[in-house]
Amino acid sequence: MSRYSRITGTGSYLPPRRITNADLAVELAARGVETSDDWIVERTGIRARHFADSGVTSSDLGLQAARQALDAAGVAAGDIDLIIVATSTPDMIFPSAACILQNKLGIAGCAAFDVQAVCSGFVYALTIADSLIKTSTATRALVIGAEVFSRILDFSDRTTCVLFGDGAGAVVLEASETPGILASDLHADGRHVGILCVPGTVSGGKVLGDPLLKMDGKAVFKLAVGVLEETARATLAKAGRTAGDIDWLIPHQANIRIMQGTAKKLKLPLDKLVVTVDEHGNTSAASIPLALDAAVRSGKIKRGDTLMLEGVGGGFTWGAVLLDF
Ligand code: ACO
Description:
Distance between the termini: 20 Å
Bound molecules: acetyl coenzyme *A
């Protein structure tokens, strides 16, 4: 009998502090940085984002999302045998946010580690969990995307600080006799390290280099539209399906223009696109599971629907997962 993996529950969490574009414009003006609601909405589709209060970490946000996903799946934390957290803003350099979150869940013993693939982190993490379940290394996994990107933003750089937000999303992925996950496709091209990075690090007890996010938005935009179409088509081909089989497209929520461009290239009507970037901003590895959970809880996504999840981000990394929900 074949062994597959299937999502049995979803969850998400946004920190309560909601910052509209107008709020942000006022904060930035006080620093002499000019922006406007009109510019941000027109170029990105973002209307608001959530910022975590100081002291709140990725594992704190991930914990809330994980608890919701466990409830939705009807699974006890003690039955989880694998935790993967996709994050680029972990609580510490080490141990991983996954180990910290495991302890906060009140469990011990199961495998736990972080995946660092920036905004593609969740599709990377989901693919790894699927593989570990298929090979019987794990049976019941928590896969989480959690970020506090507000901590690495340069609020004097209006070309980046208006784009990102904080949040977490989670799924419980369980072994199943039927799919579940149908196919995955993962890629990276390290030649593009410099177009999206946080170049600093900690060394010799000091921050070395610049610890704030840098992005060449135009270069990222150009690459993103091309690779998102390619990886969607490659994933469909591996699964023996066509774009017409997709009920819901859930791309990384970075910019509404990139998302709509991808849907159009796949000849999908825009009402099949799940959009949360307007309310969440770009939450990096958290954006896909946050969007997935929002669409499940609003009743848009139903059991049996075919979903295409697609990530793209720093590295440069990209990839997709096709699944029957
Ligand atoms: N408010 C007002 N004006 C602004 C702002 C702002 N926040 N930011 C830039 N501008 C100005 C610029 O200074 C420029 O002015 P100028 O013409 O006088 O020089 C003008 O607006 C146009 O700027 P562009 O950079 O050309 O704007 P563009 O249309 O390229 O949009 C954006 C910028 C939104 C960043 C876009 O390039 C983009 O979305 N890129 C992709 C980002 C992305 O998808 N990232 C995903 C991965 S994220 C991850 O992995 C962590």
